[in-house]
UniProtKB/TrEMBL annotation:
Residues 104-123 bind DNA. This is TetR family transcriptional regulator. Residues 46-62 have a biased composition (Basic and acidic residues). GO terms for molecular function: DNA binding.
């Protein structure tokens, strides 16, 4: 089957209000597969697929599942005529109610109220759909962390705000964030670029905040090595907390203190 996602997902661009200090990190996360959250897909125009398509195998009555365990990301997305977005929502719900490993194309299209035919117009396979979803999740997480930080605040307060925003996102999306940490690497070579771009996005964010704080009179210096250690540590803390069935929010203060010890120095 021809790879149609390359052209279908090529909606790019940056936020009009993007912070120049962190735009590089944000763009890196979003640019892996050329997608941006909520962007209209140029190839959606003219699509006439309907929820009752025969390929849905009679599962059109499952549309209401957005009120189930899936939270945050899936609920925040529009569920209109954007079939690509609905398919991404469907996969997010599959992950939230089970896991990526147990998800199926049949389950995705059932939740999206569309057809297998439409799925393969946008994605070559389930893995590609997953990589696009994780790219968007990364971009959204970076956006939330970036917007939570007051650039005029003292550097320790900025570090606290950034880590707290990271953990708020993880608390709202435990299944998605766990899949982002554990399932993406499991895809092997096909996910290598995404893994590297995820890391670069967060490193760029941390270093961008540090540079801006330094310009405003502070003395923060965020080395690449420190940012890498911080990102890796936060990811593993979130993953093990979710796996142990504990509250991610309950780990926030420990994460803040670790980040302060690493990034706030004389």
């Amino acid at each position: 089957m021809a790879d149609t996602e390359t052209s279908s997902a090529a909606s790019t661009g940056t936020r009009a209000d993007a912070d120049p200090a962190v735009a590089g990190g944000d763009d890196a996360a979003r640019g892996v597969l050329g997608v941006s959250r909520g962007a209209a897909n140029p190839s959606d125009s003219g699509k006439t697929d309907t929820p009752g398509h025969a390929d849905d195998a009679g599962h059109a009555d499952d549309a209401g599942n957005a009120d189930g365990p899936a939270r945050g990301t899936a609920r925040a997305r529009a569920r209109g005529g954007d079939f690509r977005q609905r398919l991404l929502d469907g996969l997010a719900e599959e992950i939230a109610q089970g896991s990526y490993r147990t998800s199926t194309v049949a389950g995705i299209v059932r939740r999206a109220q569309t057809s297998r035919r439409t799925f393969y117009q946008y994605f070559t396979d389930r893995d590609q759909c997953f990589l696009v979803l994780m790219t968007e999740a990364t971009a959204e997480m970076i956006r939330q962390v970036s917007s939570a930080v007051d650039r005029r605040a003292p550097w320790p307060d900025q570090v606290r705000a950034a880590v707290e925003a990271w953990f708020r996102y993880a608390e709202a999306e435990p299944a998605i964030i766990h899949s982002w940490i554990r399932d993406v690497p499991a895809l092997g070579e096909k996910s290598r670029q995404l893994q590297r771009m995820q890391l670069e996005g967060f490193i760029g964010l941390a270093q961008g905040l540090g540079r801006e704080a330094a310009r405003h009179g502070g003395r923060p210096r965020v080395s690449r090595e420190s940012a890498t250690i911080l990102v890796g540590g936060l990811r593993e803390l979130v993953a093990t907390t979710v796996e142990d069935g504990r509250s991610v929010a309950g780990m926030t203060e420990a994460a803040v203190q670790a980040a302060l010890a690493l990034l706030v120095s004389d």
